[in-house]
Amino acid sequence: MRVHYQRSLVLILLLNLFVSLPLAMAQPNADVSLQAQRQKAVALFNQGKRLEALPLLEELAQKSPRDAELLVELAASLIDHAATLTDQQAAAKERFRARDLIEKAWGLGNTSTLAENLRQLLEELPANGALKFSDNPAVVQVMNAGEAAFSRRDFDEALKNYAKALELEPKNYFAVLFTANTYDRTNDFAKAGEWYERAMRMDPDVETAYRYYADMLAKQGEMAEARTMLMHAAVAEPYNKIVWREIRAWSTINNALFNPVFLAIPLPRSDNTAVGSGSKLSPELASAWRTYYSVKSEWKKGGKFEKQFPQEGEYRHSLAEESEALTKTAKVLEALREKKETAQLIASDPSAALLLKLHETGLTDAYVLFSLGDDGIAKDYVAYRAKNRDKLETYIDKFVIAPAPAK
Fold first, then answer.
1. C-beta separation of 201 from 171 below 8 A
2. Where are the alpha helices (DSSP H) in 30-67?
3. pLDDT in tens, 235-286
4. Cα–Cα dist 330/337, whole Å
5. C-alpha dist (Å) from residue 60 to 37, 56, 93, 110, 190
6. What is the dihedral of CA 61, 67, 70, 76, to 10 degrees?
7. At 106, is the pLDDT very low, low, confident or very high (cuts 50, 70, 90)?
8. Quick one: pLDDT band at residue 114, thresholds 50, 70, 90?
9. Angstrom distance (rounded) from CA 292 to CA 39
10. What is the mean predicted confidence (pLDDT) over 15-23?
């Protein structure tokens, strides 16, 4: 739940936008005193003083119960307040209330990135509403104390508790991560960087340390380095939507292209018109794309999946299926490109050109895992990442996120 503490790239964008709006635009019928109260609450919220903002937000939300922006800020502040409560049932109740407020704000039309991130995190709460930092009750106790101190902005006390947690459990990822984030919060960037790197080494397949480190680097204007960290985050957890919202925010801040790559593969009818669009394909291109569907049919209906994955009970979409279908299609397109009479046809077709580029750079598998990663394909990701982390990062670098502009 620490995302609410972090002044992340997406939060920077949202807060800058919010505070730049005329106050009357946020609450058209508010009187002067209400506007002043709201302005004070927003200022405290933006400064990270959410416990101080909380009573103001509570009062404002009662007066303006359909103000979706206020509801999101109130929910975020309640999450901070929950961390200060020693009664864990009361803390859980506070988090569930925050979840209800986010759902209400969502229903009122607030689909901002901040609302979306909080909605995702709150939906992942366990049934008892508790945050689990360890299986060791003693570690949980000091971690909760550290989180309470952090929410009160007593950062020295927070660090003492995280250190105690690490004495009890030296490989506790949360204690290392939160130590880094606390140093980050106090602008001790050198120590924060050391601790973020320690968290990355401890578990390179968790995205959070990379993303927090990226936020810190961006805060210092180190946009190229922040980009690298966000690429690491995407490779660590490619199916976590928070990572991609952060990447999109980085791209927006830097006026850089964010390209969620998708290869549009036409399905040719017998008359070579494409299903859906009705556009006419050349016989050569239609034949190439039929190769793709022919291979997929072998996997789904021809028994190839059962032979490749005899330990699995039923068919699923797999990396192996998509990779073979795309690779065989690319080889047909390569042969057509070598012929003088069809070379220009292949070069001028966007889908053919993209597939050939993926094939020739050896990044077809990475494309499949990132852009086509449904529940079936996602099952193949961990094993692939273990042997091909460099390829996954190269794909993001070359195809997805444009480089940072020069300083």
1. no
2. 32-46, 50-63
3. 999 999 999 999 999 999 999 999 999 999 999 999 988 887 778 899 999 9
4. 10
5. 8, 6, 21, 17, 40
6. 90
7. very high
8. confident
9. 58
10. 36
Cα dihedral 391→396→398→402 (10° resolution):
-160
Six-digit token string for 340: 């003088």
Count CA atoms closer than 13 A to 61's CA, side-chain side: 23
The model's confidence at residue 210, banded by pLDDT at 50, 70 and 90, is very high
Quick one: DSSP state of residue 2?
G
pTM of the model: 0.87
CA proximity to 288, closest of 373, 227, 392, 359:
359
Site of tokens 């996602």: 378
- Least Cα distance to 120 among 300, 226, 241, 278 occurs for 241
Cα gap 248→252, rounded to integer Å: 6
Beta-carbon count within 10 A of 19 CB? 14
Residue 20 has pLDDT above 50, yes or no: no
Residue 325's nearest CA partner among 290, 351, 285 is 290
